[in-house]
């Protein structure tokens, strides 16, 4: 009888908590809407943002981060950082949000996939991923800054990629998509390659065989996975454009977004491997039989120097892709 009461009490507390969160979210949405109306009236040239957009931008990232926290895809600091990144990207453009969602969901699922084999390879493997705020910002920091610049340029809303009419906004949109696709491609390569590859990885700088888990090691399976990971982010962006942009037929063709995402994922993974081979230490620790990223008396160096960690390499790769790849797309984009 006592256990039944405890279960009912827990369900009641959960229901009340959900109601409180919903009420707070509604209040925040209305508050931000009033602020938006006030700023629009004062400046005279800003369009007020719909309260429903505020509500969606707060409520949906909140629900997703809470679920990720329960599933241990994020720790508490990572959940707070992801909530901020999700809010900014959702407010700026729903296509940004869907691209972020595609990256996060696929990466989280692939991290859990093949866990038994990854534990034998990765000395730092964590159950479920457990990404912290540093990892979240290294993957989502550049897209967040680009989303803020996008809102300053054109305001919150969905517009097509169209260099003829929206040059700056199109450039920033492709930069953001490239950064997310780069992160997705690298994650897909590092999560799929060790599980499915039947051959040892080769160091990207020398093409010599190295143990699985070596920074800078690549496999054909991993490279294909990196392209598919970036393309998955591009597909999410493209589909959202089809659903939310009414005058899409008046702009440049949008289907290259998918190809662009795939190329960003592949190039981002290759760039990440190249930086990792040079600037991340990899050594084989004979005491545990795994590749590690720090020197000790029982490790034998494989490659790299202890200059950057994995988070810094991810950040540099995504920033470089965001900076340079849109320029290549601008010249090749069909009109």
Automatic annotation (TrEMBL):
Any one cellular-component term (Gene Ontology): membrane
InterPro entries the UniProt entry points to: DUF92_TMEM19
Predominant location category: membrane
Protein name: Transmembrane protein 19
Places the protein is found: Membrane
UniProt KW keywords: Membrane, Transmembrane, Transmembrane helix
Sequence intervals crossing the membrane: 20-39, 81-105, 223-245, 257-277, 315-333
Topology of this chain in the membrane: Multi-pass membrane protein
Family statement drawn from the similarity comment of this UniProt entry: Belongs to the TMEM19 family.
């Amino acid at each position: 009888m006592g256990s039944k009461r405890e279960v009912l009490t827990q369900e009641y507390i959960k229901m009340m908590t959900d109601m409180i969160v919903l009420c707070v979210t509604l209040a925040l949405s209305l508050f931000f809407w009033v602020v938006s109306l006030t700023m629009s009236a004062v400046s005279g040239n800003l369009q007020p943002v719909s309260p429903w957009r505020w509500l969606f931008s707060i409520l949906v990232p909140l629900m997703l981060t809470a679920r990720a926290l329960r599933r241990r895809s994020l720790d508490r600091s990572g959940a707070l950082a992801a909530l901020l990144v999700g809010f900014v990207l959702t407010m700026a453009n729903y296509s940004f949000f869907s691209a972020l969602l595609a990256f996060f969901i696929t990466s989280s699922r692939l991290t859990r996939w093949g866990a038994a084999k990854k534990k034998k390879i990765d000395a730092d493997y964590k159950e479920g991923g457990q990404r912290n705020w540093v990892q979240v910002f290294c993957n989502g920091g550049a897209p967040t800054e680009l989303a803020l610049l996008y809102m300053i340029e054109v305001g919150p809303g969905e517009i097509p990629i169209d260099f003829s009419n929206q040059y700056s906004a199109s450039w920033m949109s492709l930069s953001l998509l490239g950064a997310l696709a780069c992160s997705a491609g690298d994650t897909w390569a590092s999560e799929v390659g060790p599980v499915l590859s039947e051959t040892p990885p080769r160091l990207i700088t020398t093409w010599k065989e190295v143990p699985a888990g070596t920074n800078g090691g690549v496999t054909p399976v991993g490279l294909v996975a990196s392209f598919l990971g970036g393309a998955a982010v591009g597909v999410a962006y493209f589909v959202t454009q089809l659903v939310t942009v009414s005058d899409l037929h008046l702009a440049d063709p949008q289907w290259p977004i998918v190809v662009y995402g795939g190329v960003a994922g592949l190039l981002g993974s290759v760039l990440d491997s190249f930086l990792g081979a040079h600037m991340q230490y990899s050594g084989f620790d004979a005491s545990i039989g795994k590749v590690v990223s720090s020197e000790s008396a029982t490790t034998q160096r494989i490659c790299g120097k202890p200059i950057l960690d994995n988070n810094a390499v991810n950040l540099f790769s995504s920033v470089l892709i965001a900076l340079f790849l849109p320029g290549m797309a601008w010249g090749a984009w069909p009109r």
